[in-house]
Write a structure and sequence with these properties.
Layout: H1 3-12, H2 14-17, H3 25-32, E1 42-46, H4 52-60, E2 66-71, H5 74-83, E3 89-93, H6 99-103, E4 108-113, H7 122-135, E5 136-146, H8 151-155, E6 161-167, E7 174-180
Parallel strand pairs: 1-2, 1-4, 2-3, 4-5
Antiparallel strand pairs: 5-7, 6-7
Length: about 180
């Protein structure tokens, strides 16, 4: 799929993508540096977008791991399905607030997210936070890319341990929030 087509989707649906451009390779690498993929068997990505984070996850995950990628844009889902046609990568064209319905009770090792939480209605945002915390293993991590440090305080209601990192190597510069229970 042409990159121009993906950029068009990004701008047409800015309320759901929440970004003016896709995540830089530098941001993806920094985000994923906080995740321990060794032995992580069930991994969830919230907001697959153009696949830049998905690609980084697939390159790092064990061959017997399963990655569930949640994306609400049908356009992005079609593109992701073409890019990642593999039995251990599941592209799910549905809202992240329904993640529990697709995981069938499986505990999750890692949740990696680029969801625009500041644009998501409070009720949906709360459901995503609560369900993420419930399905995450006690040793698991929820790692979020965001553009506002204030988002950290929303996560504090659901996760007891929160760290943040920052990178200028993205447009716009971004925060990474690393959470666990």
């Amino acid at each position: 799929m042409k990159k121009s087509s993906l950029f068009k989707e990004l701008f047409v649906n800015i309320k759901t993508t929440g970004a003016v451009t896709f995540s830089s390779k530098s941001l993806v690498n920094k985000m994923l540096s906080f995740a321990d993929f060794n032995g992580a068997k069930v991994i969830v990505e919230l907001g697959g977008g153009d696949g830049s984070i998905t690609r980084g996850i697939v390159e790092r995950m064990d061959s017997d791991s399963v990655l569930y990628v949640f994306e609400i844009s049908e356009h992005f889902c079609r593109n992701l399905s073409r890019q990642f046609a593999s039995k251990n990568v599941k592209i799910i064209c549905d809202s992240a607030e329904n993640l529990d319905k697709h995981l069938n009770g499986q505990p999750v090792d890692l949740i990696l997210s680029s969801l625009p939480f500041s644009l998501i209605p409070k009720e949906s945002r709360t459901a995503i936070y609560e369900k993420s915390r419930l399905i995450l293993k006690p040793s698991g991590f929820f790692i979020q890319i965001c553009y506002s440090y204030l988002l950290r305080f929303q996560f504090a209601s659901y996760f007891s341990n929160i760290k943040t990192a920052f990178t200028l190597k993205n447009f716009p510069p971004a925060f990474i929030i690393i959470c666990n229970t």
